[in-house]
Amino acid sequence: MEIKEYTVEKINDPTGILTGERYEYFLSLEVDEEDDLASEQGLQLKVLFFVEEDQSKILNYHFYNSIEDRYLDFALEEDELAEIAVFCREHIAEAE
After folding, report:
1. Considering the entire predicted model, what is its pTM?
2. Which domain holds residue 18?
3. How many CB atoms lie within 10 A of CB 39?
């Protein structure tokens, strides 16, 4: 799995109820053509990422096929999830 493009945006909590900060990532992925997720139309991963002091984690994620405008029912493997979390941590400073 390779991240080809991405966007990141900080989500503001106007109520002030939520602790920490949340970021929304849209990752355009390229996967091996033998992978169940392989698609000629492209594949996106929408990630909600949480940061508070020295703690950070993925709150949830969804695979999305933008051409067909539908979410896909797949899960990341543990090593892939860890790779995405590292990517998110490294790119927080780019949030709008």
Report:
1. 0.85
2. 2-94
3. 17
